[in-house]
Design brief:
Structural class: alpha/beta
Radius of gyration: 23 Å
Number of strands: 11
Strand content: 5-15%
Helix content: 40-55%
CATH architecture of the largest domain: 3-Layer(aba) Sandwich
CATH class of the largest domain: Alpha Beta
Number of helices: 21
Length: 497
């Protein structure tokens, strides 16, 4: 869990113990009422004060002089310089809170260690990283890239193991413990992030709902169900059932009408993982095994697909975009203007696309499978960005600077990020602030999803497109291939130790 001094207090006491202790299997449900969370605020004020004290000084890291050496981070070319949360090294102070927090953090750590922290941008980060490492180029001390690009490089032995780096404390609160838990295999971890960057948090899958439409349809906002632990697939299905309306009376349901759910291809696997579904898990001995071909996961996938393919309630955004000039902004505007009650989305486009539109919206996590599931699960997409350390890097230098940046980020980067979330750029109501804490605190990272074992993501999308729920036979057909692919992955990691 990313620790932040602006952690949304309302949920801290009620959820924290369960969230940290729970595994993806889920056990008994532990609902939390809205009243309970409100009363928890005062009780956690001391905890928040202590969190504010976490920084480089409190981390007790050694001070060294690196004689002006550059700490170069290979990273993606920014899609937009306004999207500060994807950056590591802002060019200058500009008055924007997150930008300036990053700039000042880098300046502080740079001064302490007599180093310059710089970015080297790439449009083909996987190729550029691989070529640099293969040639023995020592320029890059870290790679900050999407896990879909960097995880395959890890299998090729191109990155150092975070568990072995001299100054990396993987138990420290500034590292995302869900990553440490889920992506460590045989004592090795090659991808890592936390307070050091919000880039993974903004790529989590969420649900956005139109509050004005809820009011007009006499529907309660779903927040209380989330608080109570009863926000389930069945509950969500109740919301989107009977919402559809042929507004223009032409007897054809299309983009001129009203829908329950507006989602892109793949919403079935978003719901699948939120419901505790798995592709690959660790068995009791710590070995990786293919897990999607179980009765629970099959039934979960069927329930998710039934919603995705139901043309009486669900409209696919991909279809809308394809038939309306290929403009996703147009699709967002259609949703905001009352096209649908719910929309699935990663977090990042919300401030980009909805902020300027006249719509009252709320954010909730994807629903649980049922009330027995102990917690909500949040799936970050495969393009989430994390840090890796090339085998050509100086382990002492790389780990010390990364650890210092991460520790200092608890009291700088995370507050700035949460300020952005809270000031109307991401959420517009108090309840959604609490939803974000639940969403961020329940991230899961499935190696099978990241590597697309068994072609899992495509498999569910193909079932969506064919309007099929033939999950059992589809899963069974791919099982052998998935197991073979996973075995090869495990052998690769065994070779590199």
């Amino acid at each position: 869990m990313m620790l932040s001094p602006r952690r949304f207090i309302a949920f801290a006491l009620a959820f924290l113990t369960a969230l940290l202790a729970a595994s993806c299997g889920g056990a008994a449900n532990s609902p939390v009422s809205k009243v309970d969370t409100e009363n928890a605020a005062d009780a956690t004020s001391g905890e928040i004060a202590e969190t504010n004290k976490i920084n480089w000084e409190s981390a007790n890291l050694p001070k060294k002089d690196f004689d002006g050496r550059e700490f170069v981070v290979l990273t993606h070319e920014p899609p937009n310089k306004q999207l500060t949360w994807y950056m590591v090294v802002p060019e200058e102070l500009n008055g924007e809170s997150l930008n300036d927090a990053m700039y000042n953090r880098n300046a502080k750590i740079g001064e302490i260690y007599n180093t310059s922290i710089v970015s080297h941008y790439s449009t083909a980060i996987r190729t550029d990283a691989s070529n640099a490492i293969a040639s023995g180029d020592t320029t890059f001390s870290a790679v900050f890239g999407s896990i879909s690009d960097t995880y395959p490089l890890a299998q090729e032995g191109q990155f150092l193991n975070f568990h072995n780096l001299p100054y990396t404390n993987l138990e420290a609160p500034w590292w995302d413990q869900s990553i440490v838990r889920d992506l460590t295999y045989r004592g090795a971890l090659y991808n890592l992030t936390g307070d050091i960057s919000p880039a993974t948090n903004v790529r989590v899958y969420t649900m956005v709902f139109n509050k004005d439409m809820c009011k007009s349809l006499n529907l309660d906002y779903p927040y209380q169900y989330v608080y109570d632990g009863t926000w389930t697939i069945d509950r969500f299905n109740q919301y989107i059932t009977d919402v559809n309306a042929d507004l223009n009376g032409d007897s054809v349901m299309d983009y001129n009408d009203r829908w329950g759910f507006f989602s892109q291809d793949g919403c079935s696997w978003m719901m699948y993982f939120a419901g505790g579904g798995q592709v690959v898990v660790k068995d009791p001995s710590g070995e990786l095994v293919v897990a999607y071909n179980t009765d629970r996961n099959i039934q979960l996938a069927i329930k998710a697909l039934e919603i995705a393919i139901d043309k009486s309630k669900t409209l696919m955004a991909n279809q809308y975009v394809a038939n309306n000039g290929g403009n996703w902004a147009t699709a967002t505007a259609w949703f905001a203007n009352g096209g649908a009650l719910f929309r699935s989305s990663v977090l990042e486009p919300i401030p980009r696309d909805l902020r300027s539109l006249e719509v009252n919206f709320g954010i909730v996590p994807f629903p649980k499978l049922d009330e027995k599931q102990i917690q909500y699960y949040t799936l970050p997409e495969e393009y989430s960005r994390m840090f890796s350390v090339p085998v050509t890097a100086d382990p002492e230098f790389a780990s010390l600077i990364l650890e210092s940046l991460a520790a200092e980020s608890v009291s700088t980067i995370s507050p700035a990020f949460y300020d952005i979330c809270l000031n109307g750029k991401v959420v517009r109501d108090e309840e959604s602030k609490g939803m974000l804490d639940i969403i961020f605190s329940n991230k899961i990272f499935d190696i099978g999803y990241i590597t697309n074992i068994g072609n899992f993501r495509t498999m569910l999308v193909n079932l969506e497109k064919s309007a099929s729920t033939d999950v059992a036979s589809t899963f069974a057909k791919t099982l052998k291939s998935a197991e073979t692919t996973l075995q090869k992955l495990c052998e690769n990691f065994e070779k590199i130790g």
